[in-house]
Amino acid sequence: MPQTNNAAGFSQSLERGLAVLSSFTPDRPALGISELARQLALTRSTTHRYVATLATLGYLQQDDATRKYRLGPRILDLGFSMLGSLGLREIAAPHLRRLTDATGHTSNLAIRDDTDVILIDRVRGRPGRYHHLEFTLHVGSRIPAYCSATGKALLAFMPRPDLEHIVERIDLVQRGPRTLTGKRALLTELEQVRRNGLATNDEELESALRSIAAPIRSRSGEVVAAINVAIPWSPVTMNELARRLGPTVQAAANEIAAHVI
Q: What is the pLDDT at residue 130?
């Protein structure tokens, strides 16, 4: 834990609470009381008191099976504030507009929240190129990650142990005629996404809806968001659609990434 600052107005309790939250990382998403106590050089009882308070407030949540803690849903509120302050939506907005103008299709910007993705911005395509699902989706909508292109683009680049853990917790329900309902099949496809840098949804979320997505990386290389284009069904094969539209989607993702901190 950082050395205590004795300056006037400095709160050691707040420092410790934030240190607890900062202990959770993509490589170590779940931690027990003993692990946190060792990492922060605090006693177990002191650590438990801070953890219990953060859990009560929704900033941490406990896994019933392992008794370990993870970051809770209230962190998402802070995350949205952070995204707003970094201007991710503002950065992406003109690129989403250009992507929709270039393809004619609706484009979306999404982030992952556990096993779902959340749409944080979207630009609707030209009339006549809508799927009926588009009328129910809006900024803030949640979509299962396993059967959406943006979700696959976000899942694929997680550390393998974390990915396997999250896939184990997903209930792979048949949502569309081509939904991947086997965990091995999903992991195989995510490995291909990782190699190609492009994810597709071929009627997996909903019948007659396809999409193509690419990840957006921060300067550190971490995948922080994804963009896609949503495409109503046509006789064109998914491979051909990916060949035609994939480079345009990837280029837009790279342009956004160039401005993300």
A: 52
